[in-house]
Amino acid sequence: MTALQLTVVVPCFNEAEAIETFHTTLIAALGPLGGELEICYVDDGSTDGTRLLLGGLAAMDKRVRYTAFSRNFGKEAAMLAGLRMSRGAAVVLMDADLQHPPELIPRMLELHRHGYDQVIPRRDRTGDGVLRNALSHTYYALVRRCMDVEVLDGSGDFRLLSRRAVESVLSLPESNRFSKGIFSWIGFDTVSFRYRNRERAAGQSKWGSKRLLNYGIDGLLSFNNRPLRLAIYTGFWVFVSALAYALWTIVNVLLNGADTPGYATLLTAVVALSGIQLVTLGVIGEYVGRIYHEAKHRPPYVVRETSESCPALPGKPEPVATGELSELASGRSRTLRQFASFVLIGCVNTAVYMAVYYVLNQRIPYLAAHAVGFTVSFIGSFLLNSYITVGTRPTWRGFARYPLSSVINLVASGALLHLAVSGLDMDKNVAALAAGVLVTPFSFLLARWAITSGRGTDAQPDRPDGSRAEPSAIRSDSR
Ligand code: UDP
Ligand code: MG
Predict the structure, then answer these.
(1) In angstroms, rounded to a whole number, what is the distance separating the alpha carbons of residues 58 and 184?
(2) Terminal CA-to-CA distance of the chain, rounded, Å?
(3) DSSP 390
């Protein structure tokens, strides 16, 4: 059991103007804690001398420890590093600009002693502009409707977490982190109270409107798949409307004879459908991007240096420790090998696809020929990639997931093909080949994910000794 009562984690990015005032105010507020306190600063790749100031603070005060990143990795990564460093029975996360008042910490500790695992001070909106206020309210209303977890208006990252809450946060492996959602997702007894919003003590906010917008989109997409559902519903209703319109036209022709409909209707329908398709593609793309990001298994940050008083903690993995480098390298070469195999198998499948496409293209519309060719090569692709690329027995679960990668692939390559043929006037056969090449890296990551994700050790791609799992017929997944 740790003797430290409290760890304060402070992410800092270009906070040279504010950091010393912050430190003095914090120490003044937490004086009574004495040696039971530690302060973990994380320098998120500052360029203004923050790192040197942190080094100075660590040299002066034994309770100060710091980690400095090799570049700016973002506040989420900095908070993660701080939580990994922390050893206290309770951990307070707070900003370095004094917008999170240190005077509130004793009250937070008091509530923690009453048994709460999360204590959240929620700021009011004093001092916010009217527009920002309105946007924030709308965003939180949207988040409440869409997200599978609850995020309270005004609750930021400023909070106290008990040790078991911290361990739960650290146990989540995702690298695309949205802490507000994660904190809510882990649950535990939570209490919040209001405090008056404050201005920054010094320096500038690092959150421009573009960064805020991206963060907002990240939040909405990280904790639910409703945008995908919305795309499905929209597609369904558009289809039903089109069917109704077609029926109406037929009935009209039967009753009133043939009429020449104006092409404005046609154009409107085409433009509306293209819009819906583009939005849907964008939504799918966002999720694919996330899968791609997670599939790379990159560490969330790279450490440049840590304070002398901060040796590696047992059981807490340092982000890129030397021992992990060789593991990373071997993981990378395995991925390369798998990719080469995937490309080879892809060539075989592309040949099959092209043959089918070429033959059918002369009889049916080229997009239909594309879809048929794609389907024919699908089953072969799944089996060959399971046995050869990933080196594992195919499962029904993998087989059920595989179409997802293919559907995304089909839509993306179909869109590219359509663009190339109708937009760039390319030859249909060349266009199909080009579209296939362009979507290959995404296909590889998605296919590997479909074959391996959510399975036990038997799904490990290559065994360390280079051996492979015995191929056998498709089996039912045990879970
Ligand atoms: N921060 C960080 N990395 C970043 C951006 C910000 O560590 O890339 C830190 C920053 O130093 C501060 C906290 O996150 O301690 C909140 O940042 P800021 O005050 O700019 O955000 P705002 O209060 O305007 O939302
Ligand atoms: Mg701030």
Answers:
(1) 33
(2) 37
(3) I
Starting at the earlier edge strand, list the strands of the sheet with 64-69.
Answer: 190-195, 118-123, 159-162, 90-93, 6-12, 37-43, 64-69, 303-306
pLDDT at 464: 33
Count Cβ atoms within 10 A of the Cβ of residue 205 and give its class: 0-12 exposed, 13-18 middle, 19 or more buried: exposed
pLDDT digits (tens, 9 = 90+) for 89-143: 999 999 999 889 999 999 999 999 999 999 999 888 776 777 777 877 787 777 7
417 CB neighbour count, 10 Å cutoff: 22
- Residue 318 CA: distances (Å) to CA of 65, 236, 300, 301, 305: 15, 48, 11, 10, 11
Residue 476: what residue type? S
Region of residue 425 (left: phi > 0; alpha: psi -120 to 50; beta: else): left
DSSP 471: P
Question: Residue 195 in 3-state DSSP?
Answer: strand
Pocket test for ligand 1, best of 8, 12, 13, 179 (most atoms within 8 A of CB): 13
Residues with CB under 6 A from ligand 1: 11-13, 15, 44, 72, 74-75, 78, 95-97, 99, 205-207
The atom number, within ligand 1, closest to the CA of 99 reads 23
Give 231's contacts (C-beta < 8 A, 6+ positions apart).
279, 280, 283, 284
Query: Mean pLDDT of all residues in the chain?
Result: 78
12 CA to centre of ligand 1 in angstroms = 7
The label of the residue with tokens 């509130």 reads 104
- What's the per-residue H, E or C state across 192-217? EEEECCCCCCCCCCCCCHHHHHHHHH
Atom index in ligand 1 nearest the CA of residue 78 equals 7
Contacts for 303 with CB less than 8 Å, ≥ 6 apart: 67, 68, 69, 70, 81, 318, 319, 320
Compute the distance between CA of residue 89 and CA of residue 1 in angstroms, rounded to an integer. 8
**pTM score:** 0.57
Strand 37-43 with 6-12, pairing: parallel
**Cβ 215 vs Cβ 145: under 8 Å:** no
How many C-beta neighbours within 10 Å does residue 227 have? Answer: 18
